[in-house]
Amino acid sequence: xxxxxxxxxxxxxxxxxxxxxxxxxxxxxxxxxxxxxxxxxxxxxxxxxxxxxxxxxxxxxxxxxxxxxxxxxxxxxxxxxxxxxxxxxxxxxxxxxxxxxxxxxxxxxxxxxxxxxxxxxxxxxxxxxxxxxxxxxxxxxxxxxxxxxxxxxxxxxxxxxxxxxxxxxxxxxxxxxxxxxxxxxxxxxxxxxxxxxxxxxxxxxxxxxxxxxxxxxxxxxxxxxxxxxxxxxxxxxxxxxxxxxxxxxxxxxxxxxxxxxxxxxxxxxxxxxxxxx
Length: 277
Ligand SMILES: [Fe+2]
Prior knowledge:
Elements: H1 10-15, H2 24-44, H3 48-63, H4 71-78, H5 81-89, E1 127-136, E2 146-150, E3 172-176, E4 182-188, E5 193-194, H6 200-207, E6 213-214, E7 217-223, E8 230-236, E9 255-256, E10 259-261, E11 264-268, E12 271-273
Parallel strand pairs: 1-11, 1-12, 8-9
Antiparallel strand pairs: 1-4, 2-3, 2-7, 5-6, 7-8, 10-11
The structure holds fe (ii) ion.
Fe (ii) ion (FE2) binds at residues 103, 105, 217, 219.
């Protein structure tokens, strides 16, 4: 083995330089990254032009990010990495609602609302009532659970994507359960929408021959003292994009029937929380 860098031993040459890294976890992470990155390059054998195209993709992905646009999360989501990291970190016990991706459109500080309030402030979309009970793994209702919910309007856009067209905090709200663990709120029926396609990730999807759509869903973060927080969605059964979600977020247990109930749609989403470790 040469003392210097060679094609055959490239990853070993780079990993050897970690000898003075004194953070064992970081060392494990970097060893894995270097090993797999070198293996990828050896498998694909990129031309110099292809490697430069990759560098340009990464550069543009960073440059388009700001406090409202997170193209890196979108890259991670559309390559299935967000769902994989999520799955590894949320192996839930039976009776607990499954996690799915947070996505790039959560906004902290949604208004605290009363049960039964309407989160839709622009009136665009078909009226829908969402109800359910937050319970522990054994089905006992949880009092004081907080639900942070958000979704697109009836045209498939989040408020932050249309800051001049939608009211601030449109289709966002927080609700807190009482002693029966029950919640309900009014909204509009969610619709499928494309992830943003005007940046480098959109170009990447197109080059891969993929569509950018997500099936209709409502986002939830549910937390309660003494329980593990769950970040999840409820999906609309029958949606045409359930099996080809651009970010791989669908799980069987999260797909529920939305039924016509008078002039409104209605869905019941019961949420189970695992006890905190
Ligand atoms: Fe979403």
